[in-house]
Specification:
There is one protein chain. The chain is mostly helical. The protein has 2 domains: 78 residues, Orthogonal Bundle (Arc Repressor Mutant, subunit A); 59 residues. The chain has a 3-stranded antiparallel β-sheet with strand order 1-3-2. A hairpin with a 5-residue loop joins strand 2 and strand 3. The protein starts with 11 loop residues before the first helix and ends with a helix.
């Protein structure tokens, strides 16, 4: 009897690491900053208003998977410049596009649901309490999606 090997199991640690990176607001800020310019750890520390060791910890995580890269600049003194290589920029662009598409789809879905519930209420097929509760819930969701 042969076993089917699931190749996706090999990808899980890197996928978990990428999700971990995107889950942290400081790392997202670092990626946003590096997406716009090349920066040193000192410049990132100043921009983020956090300690240098904290910045280095975040940079190390992203360096380990190749999401960012570090290049030495020796003039006038040694410093390391951090950038995002092309595959990382492409990943960030795809993630942003996917998130934008997702948010747009959610807005459309909740707007449609709210309109349907309003029609049901107007036609007497839904109670005022139900309509008001759903309106409050969906309006809250739609408001958060605007941010």
């Amino acid at each position: 009897m042969s076993e089917i090997i699931d190749d996706s199991q090999e990808e899980i640690p890197i996928v978990d690491t990428i999700y971990s990176i995107f889950r942290d607001s400081t790392r997202r800020k670092i990626l946003t900053l590096l997406g716009n310019m090349k920066l040193t750890a000192d410049e990132l520390t100043k921009e983020l208003g956090i300690s240098r060791p904290a910045v280095e910890k975040h940079l190390k995580q992203m360096l380990e998977i190749g999401l960012i890269e570090r290049k030495a600049d020796t003039y006038p003194t040694l410093k390391y410049i951090y950038t995002i290589p092309s595959p990382g920029l492409e990943l960030l662009s795809n993630v942003r596009d996917s998130i934008d598409t997702f948010i747009s789809s959610l807005r459309e879905e909740y707007t449609r649901r709210l309109e349907n519930e309003e029609q049901m209420y107007v036609l007497g097929m839904s109670s005022k309490d139900r309509y008001e509760a759903i309106k409050k819930s969906y309006s809250s969701i739609l408001e958060r999606l605007q941010k």
